[in-house]
TrEMBL record:
Pathway membership: Pyrimidine metabolism; UMP biosynthesis via salvage pathway; UMP from uracil: step 1/1
Any one of the GO BP annotations: pyrimidine-containing compound salvage
Name of the protein this chain belongs to: uracil phosphoribosyltransferase
Pfam family for this entry, one: UPRTase
Family according to the record: Belongs to the UPRTase family.
Enzyme type, top EC level: transferase
Cofactor: Mg(2+)
The EC number(s) this enzyme carries: 2.4.2.9
Keyword Transferase appears in the UniProt entry: yes
Domain of life from the UniProt record: Eukaryota
Residue span(s) of domain Phosphoribosyltransferase: 25-217
Length: 219
């Protein structure tokens, strides 16, 4: 479930709902650029960054917070809020790495990162994990297939299902049904949901191989 039905970005610190960004003209223009086979590498990356900024901002709304009162420079009181947990961004390679810098730029609190390399067998369509590197304090900094494999790995490291937020650009309807059925407490934030899959289980109409397009490794 993502650009190719597998990759994404996990923010570990919430509950079981799917949030799809408002399909306003600004977003639809960006998604048109991203999906267009004729879009060049630089424009693809630029449009992706703008979409990811909206996704990350939406996902961070699910980090636990509390009200607080501060004093402004003119001596007035202001009732605001502060987040009560840090965030750990876990990238599912390669596509998920594209979201890391936006998370760094957006989040003002404690922040750590982890990496998961999960690849799908092209014959069986089953996901296998090849690499896992997660921070030791991931169970503390928690705000929040391949997605299923990623969630399983995080849970094995002590992260509660309800504190995981999956952030991706394009989801498939079938993928959402599968993941939400298996993990009812998982939170998902996506920019678009496509209804169909190809015979090889790639999202249709999708946007092609996200990793190749983002990193300029298309043949």
């Amino acid at each position: 479930m993502d650009a190719n039905g597998t990759n994404g970005h996990l923010c570990t610190g919430a509950s079981s709902h799917v949030t799809v960004l408002d399909q306003d003209r600004s977003l639809l223009q960006l998604m048109t650029i991203i999906r267009d086979v004729n879009t060049g590498h630089r424009d693809f990356c630029s449009a992706t960054e703008k979409v990811v900024t909206r996704l990350i901002s939406t996902a961070l709304n699910n980090v636990p917070s509390e009200e607080c009162t501060i004093q402004t420079p003119i001596g007035a009181s202001y009732k605001g809020l502060r987040f009560t947990k840090g965030v750990c961004g876990v990238s599912i390679l390669r596509a998920g790495t594209s979201m890391e810098q936006v998370l760094r730029d957006t989040w003002m609190g404690p922040l750590t990162f982890g990496k998961l390399l999960i690849q799908r067998d092209e014959t069986t369509s089953l996901a296998q994990i090849y690499y896992s590197k997660l921070p030791s304090r991931i169970t503390k900094d928690a705000t929040g297939g391949s997605v299923i494999k990623a969630v399983e790995t995080l849970k094995e490291h002590g992260v509660s299902e309800g504190s995981i937020i999956l952030v991706n650009i394009v989801s498939s309807k079938k993928g959402l049904d599968l993941v939400c059925g298996k993990y009812p407490s998982l939170k998902i934030v996506s920019a678009a949901v496509d209804m169909d899959l190809t015979p090889k289980n790639y999202i249709h109409p999708g946007l092609g191989d996200f990793g190749d397009r983002y990193y300029g490794t298309c043949e």
